[in-house]
């Protein structure tokens, strides 16, 4: 598994050109969706909603909202990771209900945990920049997703270069209390994408890792 | 691989109690370090430094900086993901040099890319909250790391509950222009950690995934 992991992470790259003819098989995409769903988040709050855009017209119209980056239209599945604009007591209560149901315990038995979340994310330190906090969680999902995709031999291109207001508008997110955090076209590289062949550039181990013995 | 991925993500959980006697084998840890190093980031800028704390005295002293969470002291390897407090032209120039060297191209040939980064991260929109942006990248690393650890059968517990000023002080980060973004004790669960046995709670697929056909 060690070798598989590292060769997959070496193999992946920010794909500049997707093969329009190649579609991700349903079983692989279902696994990626499930991987997204299982992503860990702080307090388990999952302050996200994942949009999977397969509609070609919509993908085409999102290109100009992505500074002309064509991958958005070419890819097989366009993943748009959105987050809740604000987190309120309702969100926490809903989460507590899901935990109670999953574990077969009472809501009351989770009061301490509920108050801890409320006192941090809703009324406490994390609420100062609740949207920023939600986006951090979204990036855990992005990191998890990209690694899982690579392991399945599926290409993607994480993108911060987009106009969130335009994505939000085209997807009708604002009225649902959501906003776009990050975008990730997913599919398969073309045989001619020269970026696939350039050696991967990273800082050396000694520069980014420091061990304290 | 699909089944391996999903069973690993199901198997993992935020470990509440680590076995102090169980050390992560060197080859596994080396793979996790390499996975961290290979983490994708926006513009490839890698605005991070990963600290691996193995020193028991230091781990012990970080418990109170983590609101008493004992995993910090019990774990085999304490991963502390730190980020640069500010990103300047020097950081961009260094990154451009590394790309040029890796790919065997001239610095001049990367001028367009260099200016794009400077006009966004150093002097443009991302510089408004440069630290917040750097932390987003750190969370990609966290997501990648947790998935890789799970695939290697290694436990971890991502933590936002710590006093960053105290971590920064104990690790001498401020004077190096770094600050703690997120912490992740890593090792092996104890046989008695009851949290390992509670069913994983997540929102249902229909709640977090929306497909637009």
Number of strand segments of chain A: 5
Report the span from N to C terminus of chain A: 27 Å
Alpha-beta classification of chain A = alpha+beta
* DSSP strand content of chain A: 5-15%
- Give the name of the CATH architecture of chain A: 3-Layer(aba) Sandwich
N-to-C order of helices and strands of chain A: HHEHHEHHHEHEHE
Oligomer: homodimer
Biggest sheet statistics of chain A: 4 strands, antiparallel
Helix-residue proportion of chain A = 40-55%
Strand order of the largest sheet of chain A: 1-2-4-3
CATH superfamily of chain A, by name, is: NADH Oxidase
- Structurally, the number of domains of chain A stands at 1
Poorly predicted runs of 5 or more residues of chain A: none
Kindly report the greatest chain-chain contact and the residue count on each side.
A-B, 72 and 71 residues
The radius of gyration over CA of chain A amounts to: 19 Å
Report on the architecture of this protein:
2 copies of one chain form a homodimer. Chain A is of the alpha+beta class and 213 residues long. The first copy, chain A, has one domain: NADH Oxidase (3-Layer(aba) Sandwich). Chain A is 45% helix and 14% strand. Chain A is globular and about 60 Å long. The model of chain A has no long low-confidence stretch (mean pLDDT 98). At the A-B interface, helix 1, helix 2, strand 1, helix 5 and helix 7 of A face helix 1, helix 2, strand 1, helix 5 and helix 7 of B.
Outline the secondary-structure elements:
2 copies of one chain form a homodimer.
Chain A: H1 2-11, H2 26-37, E1 48-53, H3 56-63, H4 71-74, E2 77-84, H5 89-103, H6 111-122, H7 130-151, E3 155-156, H8 164-171, E4 178-187, H9 205-208, E5 209-212
Antiparallel strand pairs in A: 1-2, 2-4, 3-4
Helix pairs in contact in A: 2-7, 5-6
